[in-house]
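Page 37, continued from 36.
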């Protein structure tokens, strides 16, 4: 009986939150006719407050203690925070409205997202009480759920709007190939074989900076590591690295790639300093299997193109959206509202 009562209370709470969300008395703006509430604006202002505060401190050389009533040019810090919050609302609401159009959510209203959170948290609480596994957090804060849902919906939109030819985010095989051919070096690490020489020179503990500089000049002047392999306490070796394990590089491979990736064939690296030694690398040759590279990176290229299209598509919609602000309603928001 107690469990059923809890469920009933939760259902009534969700219904009440949703109903309140549709009251227009606390509306401070509208985006293409969709209400933006006071709660929504304050939510975004609180989220952005730390970032905006740091930016304003730097840009306007504001002295401590910081106050939102401080003048920043011709506007107060609070007014600039409100502007930033409206910018974020325009961008995020554009995503939410698109998700609503595509049937991914029932409503893009902020209050309905809060109702979703209440329902999700109640469901998680019930699962925990029943001993069932709950993945992630046990309870979402408003900020956590908002970010989680927005990310989830963005991923869903990218999939939905890229499925078939004619969809706004659709990417063809030809598009993928064109992107690869435009910059093959950016997509070739996993299919490139590097042949290199490595010269390790032991350096005395009391060696001066002049000694090290002189050694570096001799190496660079020689043009080939093999030409200076006769240096005292020097060891020359050769090696091959094929890059095929780059999805899980260990520290040594990461360090090696950071050096070889910057060299053209024949090039010698600056010395890599180690404990009591200097290491020089020379790239002897580099060979890329383009067919292998394209096959390995095609899906990643496709996703990057979808991401680019989505960003541009969303930006166009956001730019075209009409935001009407109730100046008097916004002016009623004060510093205490942001700090609560």
């Amino acid at each position: 009986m107690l469990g059923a009562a809890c469920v009933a209370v939760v259902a009534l709470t969700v219904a009440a939150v949703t109903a309140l969300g549709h009251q227009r008395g606390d509306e401070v703006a509208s985006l293409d006719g969709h209400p933006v509430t006071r709660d929504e604006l304050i939510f975004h202002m609180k989220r952005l407050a730390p970032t905006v505060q740091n930016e304003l401190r730097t840009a306007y050389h504001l002295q401590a203690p910081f106050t939102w009533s401080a003048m920043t040019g011709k506007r107060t810090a609070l007014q600039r925070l409100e502007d930033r919050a409206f910018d974020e609302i325009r961008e995020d609401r554009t995503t939410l409205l698109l998700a609503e159009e595509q049937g991914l959510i029932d409503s893009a209203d902020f209050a309905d997202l809060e109702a979703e959170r209440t329902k999700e948290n109640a469901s998680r609480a019930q699962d925990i009480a029943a001993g069932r596994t709950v993945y992630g957090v046990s309870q979402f804060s408003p900020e956590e759920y908002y970010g989680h849902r927005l990310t989830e919906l963005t991923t869903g939109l990218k999939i939905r709007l890229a499925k078939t030819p004619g969809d706004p985010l659709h990417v063809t095989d030809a598009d993928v190939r064109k992107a690869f051919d435009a910059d093959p070096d950016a997509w070739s690490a996993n299919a490139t074989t590097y042949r290199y020489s490595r010269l390790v020179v032991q350096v005395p503990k009391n060696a001066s900076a002049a000694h090290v500089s002189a050694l570096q000049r001799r190496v660079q002047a020689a043009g080939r590591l093999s030409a200076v392999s006769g240096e005292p306490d020097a060891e020359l070796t050769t090696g091959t690295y094929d890059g095929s394990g780059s999805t899980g590089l260990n520290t040594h491979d990461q360090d090696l790639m950071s050096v070889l990736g910057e060299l053209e064939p024949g090039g010698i690296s600056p010395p890599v300093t180690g404990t009591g030694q200097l290491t020089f690398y020379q790239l002897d040759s580099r060979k890329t299997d383009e067919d292998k590279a394209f096959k390995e990176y095609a899906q990643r290229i496709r996703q990057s193109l979808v991401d680019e299209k989505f960003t541009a598509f969303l930006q166009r919609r956001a730019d075209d959206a009409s935001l009407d602000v109730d100046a008097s309603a916004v002016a009623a928001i004060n510093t205490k509202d942001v700090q609560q």
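The first strand starts at residue 27 and ends at 31. Flag for discussion at group meeting. The first helix runs from residue 2 to 21.
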